[in-house]
Specification:
313 residues; eight-stranded mixed beta barrel; 11 helices; 8 strands; 15% strand
């Protein structure tokens, strides 16, 4: 998915109005645990947005903007509450909940934010934990694998943008259906929205160029820290798919592994999992220049990716 999405809290524009205004998604607040005047997501709104082709992502913001400074216990409690609110809206198995760091967090506070996110991950799994914040905390969380989904606001970002983010909140607002809304650039096809975009892809009827683009994007989304190596890994993955006549299978295999890879050494894991995959289709993965560089410390027993039946495509 490409395009723009909205987030808002002072009212609820209809799905038809949002779509007619040219927006393809909304990021909606879950009910807060405490007093609040925010217009939160309801089951009725969720059904209306989806019926009009508007994707819905989830955000949880506690009544106090610096809630993350409560550390691990705060993260545990907020994630437990947020999960229940998502289910009350008809989303039984939320793919992602963005937790907000809605203040100008300082580097000395990063460790406490990590602890909050670890608490959230303990309740709902790291693969569902999203982070909203300025460029500093986003880059820190990316480097420390504290979250899996990243929504950067240009507020507190001093004109900088982090690489590999899923959403970017612009400055300024627009009015849609009489409601003041923030505008967000959708930077990744999959940003944790509902319905799951993978469920909507008609892979069997896509042409070769479309499938190739999907495979490469899946690899790039798996390994946002890999830099230019993702193009080489993505291209070689496509070659395996083409020769094995299983482009759809390879794409689905990679896409399903994104959450289990979170928190690992992505480059090292990618190399070994793709080598395992190529063995099954009888092709050579490694050619000079195709292998991403082994990261420092690679090769220890703790770094080795598991090889279980669940990993098989």
């Amino acid at each position: 998915m490409a395009g723009l999405g909205l987030d808002y809290s002072g009212g609820v524009p209809s799905g038809a109005t949002v779509r007619a205004a040219g927006y393809v998604a909304v990021i909606r607040y879950l009910k807060k645990h405490g007093a609040s005047g925010v217009h939160v997501l309801t089951a009725h709104e969720y059904a209306d947005k989806v019926a009009h082709g508007v994707s819905v992502a989830l955000i949880y913001e506690a009544p106090h903007p610096d809630r993350m400074l409560g550390g691990r216990n705060a993260g545990i409690n907020d994630a437990t509450w947020a999960l229940a609110q998502a289910r009350a809206c008809g989303i039984a198995n939320p793919r992602c909940i963005y937790f907000t760091c809605d203040f100008d967090v300082q580097p000395a506070q990063y460790a406490t934010i990590d602890a909050y996110l670890a608490g959230a991950a303990a309740q709902i799994a790291l693969g569902r934990v999203g982070l909203y914040g300025g460029v500093g905390i986003i880059k820190h969380a990316q480097a420390h694998h504290s979250a899996h989904w990243f929504w950067q606001t240009l507020a507190w970002s001093r004109g900088q943008q982090a690489p590999g983010i899923h959403l970017l909140q612009r400055t300024g607002t627009v009015t849609v259906g009489g409601v003041d809304c923030d505008v967000n650039e959708i930077r990744r096809t999959d940003f944790g929205q509902h319905p799951n975009p993978a469920d909507e892809l008609d892979l069997d009827n896509m042409n070769e160029a479309q499938l190739k683009a999907l495979v490469k994007e899946a690899v790039q989304e798996c390994f946002p820290a890999a830099g230019g190596c993702t193009d080489r890994v993505g291209n070689r993955t496509w070659e395996i798919a083409r020769v094995s006549h299983s482009a759809t299978q390879v794409y689905e295999y990679i896409a399903k592994r994104t959450t289990t890879w979170a928190g690992r050494n992505w480059l090292f894991d990618a190399r070994h999992r793709l080598m395992s995959l190529q063995t099954q289709v009888g092709q050579l993965l490694a050619r000079p220049g195709d292998q991403p560089p082994a990261p420092t410390g690679a090769g220890t027993a703790a770094d080795q990716p598991s090889s279980t039946a669940a990993d098989q495509p």
